[in-house]
Design goal:
6-stranded antiparallel β-sheet, alpha+beta, 2 domains, 3-stranded antiparallel β-sheet
Length: 299
């Protein structure tokens, strides 16, 4: 009887096994079909600065504040080392975000305190003001260029955690090197398409805020020709003697602020960054004059 029962179970087991196999095949086919036809998930927005084989990432919001630090320092005639110190300090103090809270009355990018004479809360919450005040303080530190980042930062900030700045040094150096033009084609951002193009006004306002009076050249969009608006920045926009380095400094500043001002592409020399292809690629066209940078506005 036991043998008969075993023989009776075999057809059932075979049937169940066949059903499971067919189900697995069906699931696999559905997954394959979805992979071929489904839309890819949204890509996370991020910006990176490449240095010595490593990508050091920041969010687009952090990137625009790093770009401001580089622009303010460069306009003041400060070296790339100052930019490294500034970015490392803001990374430690606020994660490079313009926050309206902190320890006691500290606020802003550098967590400066009104009670310590840094200015009013409203002033400190202005990124240009707070960044300028930091570099004014750094300029008063004798020999800061030869100091460890944490020592130079502490001399300005008077932090309760003076050694904490050191952990951000390499990331800050990667971004400083790109934003001051010493590392060409090292900074790129992966960004979503622009939802609602806003024209050239945000770009021009940011140029004036970060770079000062640089006399950009604006070419309006031409709907009939299908060409977007562009803003050209001259190589003299920053006080950098080397035209090629000045161009890369401007270009990588522009990529770092692209998310906030609606840029679709940035071109320098014969290289271009675009939202569609977010790494530096050859333009395939004659290069722009040395130092000149072309910003293409979305829409």
């Amino acid at each position: 009887m036991a043998a008969e029962r075993r023989r009776g179970c075999l057809p059932v087991l075979v049937t169940v096994g066949l059903v499971l196999v067919l189900a697995a095949v069906a699931v696999g086919a559905v997954v394959a079909l979805l992979n071929r036809t489904g839309s890819p998930g949204p890509v996370a927005e991020r910006c990176v600065a490449h240095l010595d084989g490593t990508d050091w990432s920041l969010s687009p919001d952090q990137a625009q504040h790093a770009a401001l630090a580089a622009a303010v320092a460069t306009r003041r005639g400060l070296p790339a080392r100052a930019v490294t110190i500034g970015i490392a300090t803001a990374l430690q103090e606020s994660r490079l975000e313009n926050i309206d809270y902190g320890d006691r009355d500290s606020v802003g990018l550098y967590q400066q305190r009104p009670s310590q004479g840094w200015g009013t809360v409203e002033q400190i919450m202005d990124p240009v003001y707070s960044t300028t005040k930091f570099f004014e303080g750094l300029e008063q530190v004798d020999g800061y260029q030869d100091m460890a980042v944490t020592e130079a930062a502490q001399a300005v900030q008077r932090s309760g955690f003076p050694d904490a700045y050191a952990q951000h040094e390499v990331r800050a150096r990667a971004w400083a090197s790109a934003l001051t033009g010493f590392s060409p084609a090292a900074l790129s951002c992966t960004l979503h398409p622009v939802d609602a193009p806003a024209g050239t006004e945000p770009v021009l306002a940011r140029v004036a805020r970060d770079l000062g009076d640089v006399a950009p050249t604006v070419a309006p969009a031409d709907a009939d020709a299908g060409t977007p608006a562009t803003v050209d920045l001259p190589g003299t926009a920053l006080p950098i003697d080397d035209a090629a380095r000045a161009g890369w400094s401007l270009a990588q500043w522009a990529v770092a602020v692209a998310a906030d001002v609606g840029l679709d592409a940035v071109t320098v020399g014969d290289s271009t960054w675009t939202r569609a292809e977010p790494t530096w690629q050859p333009t395939g066209a004659p290069p722009l004059p040395a130092g000149q940078v072309r910003l293409t506005v979305a829409g």
